Amino acid sequence: MSAQVERLFPDASEPLKIAARGQHIERWVLKRKDFPEGRAGYLSWRTALAKHHAARVGEIMDEAGYITQDVENAQKMIRKEGIKRNAEVQDLEDVICFTFLKWYFAPFASTQSPEKIERIVAKTALKMSAEGRARVLEEFDLPDALAEKFAV
Protein backbone atom coordinates (compact mmCIF):
# COMPACT_ATOMS: atom_id res chain seq x y z
CA MET A 1 0.00 0.00 0.00
CA SER A 2 2.75 2.43 0.94
CA ALA A 3 4.61 1.80 -2.31
CA GLN A 4 1.42 2.39 -4.30
CA VAL A 5 0.75 5.66 -2.44
CA GLU A 6 4.27 6.86 -3.19
CA ARG A 7 4.00 5.81 -6.83
CA LEU A 8 0.50 7.08 -7.55
CA PHE A 9 0.50 10.14 -5.27
CA PRO A 10 4.08 11.26 -4.64
CA ASP A 11 2.83 14.43 -2.90
CA ALA A 12 0.40 12.54 -0.64
CA SER A 13 -0.37 14.05 2.73
CA GLU A 14 0.87 12.32 5.86
CA PRO A 15 -2.71 11.39 6.87
CA LEU A 16 -3.18 9.65 3.50
CA LYS A 17 0.07 7.74 3.97
CA ILE A 18 -0.98 6.74 7.47
CA ALA A 19 -4.47 5.73 6.33
CA ALA A 20 -2.95 3.49 3.67
CA ARG A 21 -0.68 1.85 6.24
CA GLY A 22 -3.41 1.49 8.83
CA GLN A 23 -6.43 0.50 6.82
CA HIS A 24 -6.12 -3.14 7.95
CA ILE A 25 -4.56 -2.65 11.38
CA GLU A 26 -5.54 -5.43 13.77
CA ARG A 27 -7.76 -7.05 11.16
CA TRP A 28 -7.70 -10.23 13.23
CA VAL A 29 -9.59 -8.58 16.11
CA LEU A 30 -12.98 -8.91 14.40
CA LYS A 31 -13.32 -12.38 12.94
CA ARG A 32 -15.52 -13.01 9.91
CA LYS A 33 -16.94 -16.14 11.57
CA ASP A 34 -18.40 -13.97 14.34
CA PHE A 35 -20.75 -12.28 11.84
CA PRO A 36 -23.72 -13.79 10.00
CA GLU A 37 -23.19 -15.74 6.80
CA GLY A 38 -24.01 -14.21 3.44
CA ARG A 39 -23.57 -10.80 1.88
CA ALA A 40 -25.31 -8.84 4.67
CA GLY A 41 -23.05 -10.46 7.27
CA TYR A 42 -20.00 -9.81 5.13
CA LEU A 43 -20.89 -6.14 4.71
CA SER A 44 -21.58 -5.80 8.43
CA TRP A 45 -18.16 -7.32 9.18
CA ARG A 46 -16.44 -4.96 6.71
CA THR A 47 -18.18 -1.92 8.23
CA ALA A 48 -17.21 -2.99 11.75
CA LEU A 49 -13.63 -3.54 10.59
CA ALA A 50 -13.41 -0.08 9.02
CA LYS A 51 -14.65 1.51 12.24
CA HIS A 52 -12.15 -0.52 14.27
CA HIS A 53 -9.25 0.31 11.94
CA ALA A 54 -10.13 4.01 12.02
CA ALA A 55 -10.42 4.04 15.81
CA ARG A 56 -7.06 2.29 16.30
CA VAL A 57 -5.26 4.53 13.82
CA GLY A 58 -6.82 7.54 15.55
CA GLU A 59 -5.59 6.35 18.94
CA ILE A 60 -2.07 5.85 17.62
CA MET A 61 -2.06 9.24 15.91
CA ASP A 62 -3.36 10.92 19.08
CA GLU A 63 -0.61 9.27 21.12
CA ALA A 64 1.96 10.43 18.57
CA GLY A 65 0.74 14.03 18.88
CA TYR A 66 -0.99 14.55 15.55
CA ILE A 67 -3.45 17.42 15.36
CA THR A 68 -7.15 16.60 15.53
CA GLN A 69 -7.73 17.58 11.88
CA ASP A 70 -5.11 15.10 10.63
CA VAL A 71 -6.45 12.32 12.87
CA GLU A 72 -10.02 12.90 11.67
CA ASN A 73 -8.91 13.05 8.02
CA ALA A 74 -7.09 9.71 8.29
CA GLN A 75 -10.11 8.16 10.02
CA LYS A 76 -12.50 9.41 7.31
CA MET A 77 -10.26 7.92 4.65
CA ILE A 78 -10.17 4.54 6.39
CA ARG A 79 -13.97 4.54 6.83
CA LYS A 80 -14.28 5.64 3.16
CA GLU A 81 -16.47 8.59 4.13
CA GLY A 82 -16.85 10.86 1.13
CA ILE A 83 -15.66 8.49 -1.56
CA LYS A 84 -16.15 10.21 -4.93
CA ARG A 85 -16.52 13.57 -3.06
CA ASN A 86 -13.34 13.85 -0.99
CA ALA A 87 -10.11 13.77 -3.01
CA GLU A 88 -8.02 12.00 -0.38
CA VAL A 89 -10.68 9.39 0.36
CA GLN A 90 -10.80 8.74 -3.38
CA ASP A 91 -7.01 8.64 -3.59
CA LEU A 92 -6.93 5.94 -0.89
CA GLU A 93 -9.59 3.95 -2.74
CA ASP A 94 -7.55 4.15 -5.94
CA VAL A 95 -4.49 2.92 -4.01
CA ILE A 96 -6.53 0.04 -2.58
CA CYS A 97 -7.78 -0.93 -6.05
CA PHE A 98 -4.29 -0.72 -7.60
CA THR A 99 -2.87 -2.86 -4.80
CA PHE A 100 -5.61 -5.45 -5.35
CA LEU A 101 -5.06 -5.50 -9.11
CA LYS A 102 -1.28 -5.71 -8.87
CA TRP A 103 -0.82 -8.21 -6.06
CA TYR A 104 -4.04 -10.12 -5.43
CA PHE A 105 -6.16 -10.17 -8.57
CA ALA A 106 -4.41 -12.93 -10.56
CA PRO A 107 -4.31 -15.53 -7.76
CA PHE A 108 -7.87 -14.67 -6.75
CA ALA A 109 -9.17 -14.73 -10.34
CA SER A 110 -7.84 -18.25 -10.85
CA THR A 111 -10.26 -19.49 -8.17
CA GLN A 112 -13.39 -17.78 -9.51
CA SER A 113 -15.73 -18.13 -12.47
CA PRO A 114 -15.32 -15.71 -15.38
CA GLU A 115 -18.74 -14.21 -14.60
CA LYS A 116 -17.79 -13.50 -10.99
CA ILE A 117 -14.49 -11.98 -12.08
CA GLU A 118 -16.31 -9.64 -14.46
CA ARG A 119 -18.62 -8.51 -11.62
CA ILE A 120 -15.69 -7.94 -9.27
CA VAL A 121 -13.72 -6.00 -11.87
CA ALA A 122 -16.78 -3.89 -12.68
CA LYS A 123 -17.27 -3.07 -8.98
CA THR A 124 -13.58 -2.27 -8.61
CA ALA A 125 -13.69 0.09 -11.59
CA LEU A 126 -16.78 1.87 -10.24
CA LYS A 127 -14.96 2.64 -6.99
CA MET A 128 -12.06 4.28 -8.80
CA SER A 129 -11.61 7.82 -10.03
CA ALA A 130 -11.55 8.50 -13.77
CA GLU A 131 -7.80 9.14 -13.49
CA GLY A 132 -7.31 5.86 -11.67
CA ARG A 133 -9.29 3.91 -14.26
CA ALA A 134 -7.30 5.51 -17.09
CA ARG A 135 -4.07 4.59 -15.34
CA VAL A 136 -5.23 0.98 -14.95
CA LEU A 137 -5.66 0.81 -18.72
CA GLU A 138 -2.14 2.20 -19.19
CA GLU A 139 -0.44 -0.09 -16.68
CA PHE A 140 -2.25 -3.42 -16.89
CA ASP A 141 -2.63 -5.77 -19.81
CA LEU A 142 -6.25 -6.80 -19.25
CA PRO A 143 -8.40 -8.90 -21.56
CA ASP A 144 -10.79 -6.71 -23.59
CA ALA A 145 -13.85 -7.82 -21.60
CA LEU A 146 -12.22 -6.63 -18.38
CA ALA A 147 -10.49 -3.56 -19.82
CA GLU A 148 -13.82 -2.19 -21.03
CA LYS A 149 -14.94 -1.94 -17.36
CA PHE A 150 -12.22 0.68 -16.85
CA ALA A 151 -12.99 2.70 -19.98
CA VAL A 152 -13.19 6.34 -18.96
Short note summarizing the structure:
This protein is mainly alpha-helical and 152 residues long. The protein is built from 8 helices and no strands. 70% of the residues lie in helices and 0% in strands.
Task: Describe it.
This protein is mostly helical and 152 residues long. The chain has one domain. It has helices at residues 2-8, 14-22, 38-64, 68-79, 87-109, 114-127, 130-139, 144-147. α3 (38-64) runs antiparallel to α4.
Shape: globular
Number of helices: 8
Mean pLDDT: 95
CA-to-CA gap between the ends? 24 Å
| Secondary-structure class | mainly alpha
Helix/strand order: HHHHHHHH
Give a short account of the largest sheet: none
Low-confidence parts:
none
How many beta strands in the DSSP annotation?
0
Number of domains: 1
Strand fraction equals under 5%
Cα radius of gyration in angstroms: 16 Å
Q: In which range does the helix fraction lie?
A: 55-70%
Topology overview:
Blueprint: H1 2-8, H2 14-22, H3 38-64, H4 68-79, H5 87-109, H6 114-127, H7 130-139, H8 144-147
Helix pairs in contact: 2-4, 3-4, 5-6
Features:
single chain, globular, mainly alpha, 8 helices, 152 residues
